[in-house]
Structure to design on (346 residues):
């Protein structure tokens, strides 16, 4: 129930509660906005019967573009202003690793986008799979660079280069060649391409920006995502070396991501609404039980019962199945999720 056109939107902002939204499967699906999302944003911005506005942030595991670029796109789709100050994507926390590692391999995404994101985060020396293939085309027997990739990639002397860490920023566009290159590094002597370790335990660490095995996009059924690449890579390392490898993942359901989201929300409420105290409740609206609900429920235990999980039926979760991590509420779509939270508050 939104207000009639004669009633101006409310201007009073509540300091009691806030929302955090997952994106894929909640607001967007296959690049298109889920229609109820536009109405849901209007409600939060004051078009509601309670006469209040409610602060909100976005927490997606997706990525592959700068935060600013993604916010511009989201602003158009949701017909509101979305600021990077209220947005976290899977790779946002990787920014904090730029002071730890100098030379890194960045994998995934379209063209050169992820190289630019990583450089924007402050990584000093960013290498892509394209640089490695251009330098030695025998690296990947079944992948040749497109003319554009060839033009953008940089030849360098890898015999004097130590790759200190591997970051999978976004979904790989070519699993076979990207995995070959990651595997080469994991089996190398301390991150030196072209070498082979005798013990296979001295390769660089691997960080994935999230661990979603499946996600919700334009197909009716879920599609495999970055978490699937992770599973595949770990299995392949075992098959080739006989050893186990431990890789790392950012994103939801990691507690670090929820702590990051808490700090972002606190700053956002302070800067835009002048609210200087934590909310009593944060409603987290997501579609994936394994990342959104699991993370929210676990974080709720450390956050004094202030995080409340709402699962929607527009994405990964399918009605009729038992979610592995049960939410506090399950609703049809994001508009129902916003209404559910508001009704609980009054
Ligand atoms: O690749 C992104 C996808 O796995 C999930 O994105 O917005 O549902 O966290 P999101
Ligand atoms: Mg989602």
């Amino acid at each position: 129930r939104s207000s009639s056109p004669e009633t101006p939107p409310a201007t009073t902002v509540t300091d009691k509660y806030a929302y955090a939204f997952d994106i894929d499967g909640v607001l967007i699906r296959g690049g298109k906005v889920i229609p109820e999302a536009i109405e849901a944003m209007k409600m939060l911005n004051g078009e509601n019967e309670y006469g209040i506005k409610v602060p909100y942030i976005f927490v997606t595991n997706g990525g592959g573009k700068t935060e600013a670029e993604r916010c511009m796109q989201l602003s158009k789709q949701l017909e509101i202003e979305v600021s990077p100050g209220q947005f976290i994507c899977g790779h946002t926390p990787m920014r904090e690793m730029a002071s730890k590692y100098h030379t890194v391999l960045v994998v995934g995404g379209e063209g050169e986008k992820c190289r630019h994101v990583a450089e924007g985060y402050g990584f000093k020396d960013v290498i892509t799979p394209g640089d490695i293939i251009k330098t030695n085309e025998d690296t990947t027997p079944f992948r040749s660079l497109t003319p554009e990739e060839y033009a953008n990639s940089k030849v360098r002397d890898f015999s004097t280069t130590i790759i200190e860490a591997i970051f999978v920023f976004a979904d790989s566009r070519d699993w076979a060649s990207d995995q070959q290159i990651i595997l080469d590094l994991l089996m190398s002597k301390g991150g030196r391409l072209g070498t082979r370790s005798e013990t296979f335990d001295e390769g660089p660490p691997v960080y994935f920006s999230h661990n979603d095995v499946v996600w919700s996009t334009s197909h009716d059924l879920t599609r495999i995502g970055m978490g699937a690449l992770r599973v595949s890579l770990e299995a392949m390392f075992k098959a080739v070396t006989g050893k186990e490898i431990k890789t790392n993942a950012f994103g939801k359901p990691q507690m670090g991501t929820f702590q990051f989201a808490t700090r972002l929300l606190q700053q956002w409420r302070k800067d835009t609404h002048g609210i200087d105290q934590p909310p009593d409740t944060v409603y987290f609206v997501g579609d994936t039980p394994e990342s959104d609900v699991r993370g929210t429920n676990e974080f709720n235990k450390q956050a004094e019962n202030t995080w409340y999980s709402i699962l929607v039926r527009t994405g990964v979760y399918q009605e009729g199945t038992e979610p592995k991590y049960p939410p506090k509420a399950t609703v049809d779509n994001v508009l129902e999720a916003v209404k559910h939270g508001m009704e609980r508050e009054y």
User: Anything to note?
Assistant: The chain has ten helices and 15 strands.
